[in-house]
Fold:
Amino acid sequence: MTKVVLGFSGGVDSAVSAELLKQQGFQVLGLYLDNAGEEERRAAQEAAELRGIELEVLDVHRQLEELVCRPFAESYLRGETPNPCIICNPSVKFKCLLDYARRAGAEFIATGHYARSKGGRIYKGLPSNDQSYMLCRLTREQAERLILPLGAYEKSQVRAMAEELGLPSAHKPDSMEICFIPDKDYISWLKSRCTVPPEGDFIFHSEPVGRHDGIYRYTVGQRRPGLIDGRKVYISRIDPLSNSIELALWEELFKTEVRARDFSWLIDPPAAPIRASVRVRHTKWENPPCTVYPQGNMVSIVCDQPVRAPAAGQSAVLYDGEQLLGGGFISEK
Structure:
């Protein structure tokens, strides 16, 4: 029987994934990445026992701190807006899955992400809950060995399957918080571990218009409370060197060109410009066609229609139709 190592938290997505994999004839080995508390770990172990899944528990506190938490904090202090899941997936989560697969003699790895995998390639999931964006920086080996059992389903269908199976997690709320900041208060988390930048100036059209209470509290595209000359204004740029935040009107937020550093390709890196479509944040309403100009480990992306407020530190993710091509971190330089 072919073995597959499944990232198993005991939640509805991983539990249903386990059942779908077993129905496909796989021997499912679960891997729980332990970075929470004893209660969460026991819940995962009980869920695995209920489904008859052999579960390995791996303490990942050290890896998470070194490879995710510290870069996440440093990115905020540079005036960026990082996405911790995109940082974590290739360096911690999928690396641990693949390492365990090698030790266990498993041919495949699997997760409960809502995306599709076929022939070593990754594709968008259904529009209502597509999570392919989060997988943009996987290594090619990780992608080639990946099975995504939930790619053809919507979340409501997965919950219905969980209810039919009698899974305790069928009606458990989705986890939306950052796993290492369970109370969602990233500002307090940053202040507890870093010397955060002081107050500074808001700048609108080159003129100071007030004071901000720390660049780490803001992200590009966010609305600033209040009006200027009767108009709403938004964060358009965060400058850590001058400790200032630039403001703009709504129509001034849109950009045609986006640069992305440390680009990770899931195809052979192109030697010449290619056509693609791009997503600059994990939303579903912007995915314009573009021309991509490779420049070493960076890419310059020229969009056919402007995208709203690309934020440094977020990911620019490229697609060829439904196929995920890769992603890099948005950069101003």
User: Anything to note?
Assistant: The radius of gyration is 21 Å. The longest strand covers residues 254-265. The helical segments are 12-23, 38-51, 61-77, 84-104, 140-144, 155-164, 186-193. The chain has a mean pLDDT of 93.
